[in-house]
């Protein structure tokens, strides 16, 4: 049997026996990935692809880092599993290591197996600690796919769970989007009205426990807030006794040129949630981390949360190796150093292509937004188009790029450029050149 036929069989079996997530099943034909190394992955036919969005913005170290692979093997040999009520060497080592890189004041940890689970833990901890029930989230946000986390998700992935999602005690505030402000203000004359609106919500609700925010919004557009936003939001939370939850699942671990995105504004959250890059996605690990003040509360109050795979040794050992490799390779500084290079290249695309409405980002985390009309900022497609399975212009461009050997994440009206932090300038040039070429598809549809 030929290698190509084997690859087709693998794809067909996967298609027939597995659900493809966030999509209509009839159009799913998953590509068989046989291997990956560095910033590249290889399909079953031997063709290589530049991983220009680090899979799901998570393979920060690149594929097949030898030290992390070795750590997985070593941990399996040492101790593959222990129930979460026990202490393990991997658990202690990672806990110590986290204190080296997390924002000051974050002191105590709950280890889960995904960002979704970590956010669920954050909601429960916030409600237990404050005695309040409501969570404020923002539109254009994504926080996970389980009942609590999807209820807190602002984008249409929540719609399938309603009305159940509405029963989750979640309220939605306007996102911070200075390119296309949802409340029709203009920065800086707005005086950060989107933050003030959140304070208005808190004042008019009876029991807000916490607000959850992605410091830089992820798949919904890589929305970078103005510098005044987070200090203002922190002050609002302090005034009203509301906890600030930073969802750093995507923005953590050097992605924005700081260890964590909140570090850009020197803001300390009460709860920090992260996953993805904590192990470079080699093994599934999520983290919900709190201040000492929150931790102290549970000394004399029942901590009502936990699950079988909590603090799983096979996930914790490789996380130590991941952090050490990031430190050894100086990848946080590298992301910051490459930011001007990427920004200049992408702004050149905006000058060249009438379909590019906006370029925004931090570190090695950028979005290129395409529009039908620059003056009105009208997009080619809407969120509803995505949910209803209508053809999207961004997907057409992404498919052409994939055929050329560049894999990029697209979402409704923008592309997410977030390669592994080990990416070279030559690889950046290659990926941006492919986008440059195929933006002609959108240019032809501009009004």
How would you sum up this structure, described in words?
- The protein is an alpha/beta fold.
- The relative contact order is 0.15.
- The strands form three sheets. Strands 4-10-9-8-7-5-6 form a seven-stranded mixed beta sheet, with helices on both faces. A four-stranded mixed beta sheet has the order 1-2-3-13.
- The longest helix has 22 residues, at 331-352.
- Helices cover 38% and strands 16% of the residues.
Average predicted local confidence, pLDDT: 95
CATH first level of the largest domain: which class? Alpha Beta
Radius of gyration: 22 Å
- Class by SSE composition: alpha/beta
- Helix content percent band: 25-40%
Main pleated-sheet profile: 7 strands, mixed
Kindly identify the CATH topology of the largest domain. Aspartate Aminotransferase, domain 2
> How many structural units, i.e. domains?
2
Which residue ranges are poorly predicted, with pLDDT under 50 across at least 5 consecutive positions?
none
Summarize the helix and strand pattern as letters. HEEEHHHEHEHEHEHEEEHHHEEHHEEEHH
Please provide the count of β strands.
15
How much of the polypeptide forms β-strand, as a percent range?
A: 15-25%
Strand order of the largest sheet: 4-10-9-8-7-5-6
CATH superfamily of the largest domain: Type I PLP-dependent aspartate aminotransferase-like (Major domain)
Gross CATH architecture of the largest domain = 3-Layer(aba) Sandwich
N→C terminal distance:
51 Å
Count of helix runs: 15
**What is the 3D form?**
globular
Q: Summarize this, please?
A:
The chain has helices at 3-17, 54-57, 66-78, 89-101, 115-130, 147-151, 193-203, 229-240, 292-297, 313-329, 331-352, 383-387, 393-403, 425-438, 440-443; strands at residues 33-37, 40-43, 48-51, 106-112, 134-138, 170-173, 208-213, 243-247, 271-274, 286-291, 356-362, 365-370, 406-407, 409-411, 414-417.
């Amino acid at each position: 049997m030929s290698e190509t036929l084997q690859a087709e069989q693998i794809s067909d079996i996967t298609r027939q026996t597995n659900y493809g997530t966030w999509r209509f099943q009839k159009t799913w034909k998953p590509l068989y990935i046989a291997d990956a190394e560095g910033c590249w992955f290889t399909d079953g036919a031997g063709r290589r692809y530049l991983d220009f969005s680090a899979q799901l913005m998570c393979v920060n170290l690149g594929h097949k880092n030898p030290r992390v692979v070795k750590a997985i093997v070593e941990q399996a040999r040492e101790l593959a599993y222990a129930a979460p009520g026990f202490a393990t060497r991997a658990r202690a080592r990672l806990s110590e290591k986290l204190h080296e890189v997390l924002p000051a004041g974050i002191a105590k940890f709950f280890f889960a197996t995904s960002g979704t689970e970590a956010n669920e833990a954050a909601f429960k901890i916030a409600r237990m600690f404050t005695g309040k029930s409501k969570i404020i989230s923002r539109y254009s946000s994504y926080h996970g796919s389980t009942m609590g986390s999807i209820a807190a998700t602002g984008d249409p992935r929540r719609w399938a769970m309603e009305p159940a999602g509405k029963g989750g005690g979640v309220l939605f505030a306007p996102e911070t989007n200075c390119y296309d402000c949802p409340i029709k203000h203009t920065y800086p004359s707005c005086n950060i009205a989107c933050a003030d609106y959140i304070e208005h919500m808190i004042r008019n609700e009876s029991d807000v426990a916490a607000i959850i925010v992605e410091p830089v919004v992820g798949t919904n557009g890589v929305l970078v807030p103005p510098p005044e936003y987070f200090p203002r939001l922190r002050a609002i939370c302090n005034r009203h006794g509301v906890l600030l939850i930073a969802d750093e699942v995507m923005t953590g671990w050097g992605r924005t040129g700081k260890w964590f995105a909140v570090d850009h504004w020197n803001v300390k959250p009460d709860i920090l949630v992260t996953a993805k890059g904590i192990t470079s996605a080699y093994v599934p690990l999520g983290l919900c981390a709190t201040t000492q003040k929150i931790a102290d509360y549970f000394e004399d109050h029942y901590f009502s949360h936990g699950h079988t795979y909590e603090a799983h040794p096979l996930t914790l050992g490789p996380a130590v190796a991941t952090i050490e490799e990031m430190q050894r390779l100086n990848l946080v500084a590298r992301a910051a150093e490459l930011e001007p290079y990427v920004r200049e290249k992408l702004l050149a695309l905006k000058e060249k292509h009438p379909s590019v409405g906006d370029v925004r980002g931090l570190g090695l985390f950028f979005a290129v937004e395409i529009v039908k009309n620059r003056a009105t900022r009208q997009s080619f497609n809407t969120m509803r188009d995505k949910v209803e399975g209508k053809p999207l212009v961004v997907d057409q461009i992404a498919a052409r790029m994939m055929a050329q050997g560049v894999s990029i994440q697209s979402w409704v009206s923008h592309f997410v450029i977030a390669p592994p932090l080990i990416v070279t300038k030559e690889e950046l040039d290659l990926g941006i050149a492919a986008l440059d070429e195929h933006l002609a598809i959108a240019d032809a549809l501009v009004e």
